Fold:
Amino acid sequence: MWRAKLPERGLPAKSDLDPTEIQADALPNIILMDVQEEPRRYRYRLTGTAIDRIQNRNLTGTYVDENRPEELRRILLHDLDDLVETGAPHLVELSFLNAEGYSRHLRILRLPLSGDQAMADRVAHVLLAFDFD
Structure:
């Protein structure tokens, strides 16, 4: 769906994505983030219920740089900076302990979105699979 929305130049905008085109069973697995500049920060705009279960809390309105543990925060910030700077989708696997100490293993598709077609100002995450080890 994301690839079909690519304009001739730049990135698809959030407004290009139609929620009705997303399978209903995928909606709990979606994260939408805002990218703020100067300084660059990533804010969770929306998180699905499956994401809330993985983290044992709702992340909506919080920032990635507030995440725990430190190692996960460092990895996420590095990966998100790369996504914004390159504009290329990412498929990543993460294994970590969440803030409550529970083991998580995730496969995540990250798709950059743009409001102005010039730079990614939003990041859409789609959680493809997860395991609770």
